[in-house]
Amino acid sequence: MRLLSGGDEVRICLIGGCGHSGMVLEGIAKSADQVLAGYGGTAVDGLENVEEVMGRLGLKAARYENYEEMLDSGNPDICVVDNRFDGHGAAAAAALRRGIATYCEKPLALSLGGLKEVERAWKNKGALLWAMQTARYDPWFYTAHKLIKEGAIGEIRMINAQKSYRLGRRPDFYKSRATYGGSIPWVGIHAIDMVNFLAGRPVESVYALHSSAFNRGHGELEMTGLVTMKLEGELLASVNLDYLRPDAAPSHGDDRIRAAGTEGVLEVRSCKVYLINGKGEREIPLLTPPTIWEAFIAACRGEEGMITAESSLEATRIALLARESADKGVPLDLLSYRDN
Question: Cα separation of 21 and 30, whole Å?
Answer without folding.
Answer: 15
